[in-house]
Design a protein that fits this description.
mainly alpha, about 70% helix, about 100 residues
Length: about 100
């Protein structure tokens, strides 16, 4: 019947309207890639700014040290020692660091 045919045509046109052409998909992929590159660049800039800020804080902190503290700091920095852990955790309290 005519109404069944027109309904079928309507659905076919509707589906065609939802499908993307290869060119459209390529444009979308290029835009997505450009956005990813932009985000990576922004993150790298933020990391660089953070490092610069941390270096400035360290310089300011060192400038307030006494001569003895500066010598002590320079000795530790020259040896490459780490200050992240100043005491060993107590095994009796369940805090253990294994070197494995």
């Amino acid at each position: 019947s005519t109404s069944a045919f027109s309904t079928k045509q309507w659905y076919q046109r509707r589906v065609r309207g939802l499908l993307l052409t290869e060119g459209e998909l390529q444009r979308m992929a290029k835009r997505a890639l450009a956005l990813v590159k932009e985000l990576v660049s922004a993150k790298q800039s933020m990391v660089a700014a953070k490092r610069t800020h941390e270096k400035n804080i360290a310089k300011n902190t060192i400038s307030t040290m006494s001569a003895a503290e500066k010598r002590h700091h320079e000795e530790r920095a020259a040896r490459g020692t780490s200050i992240w852990l100043t005491t060993l955790p107590l095994r009796e309290h369940g805090f253990v660091i294994n070197k494995q």
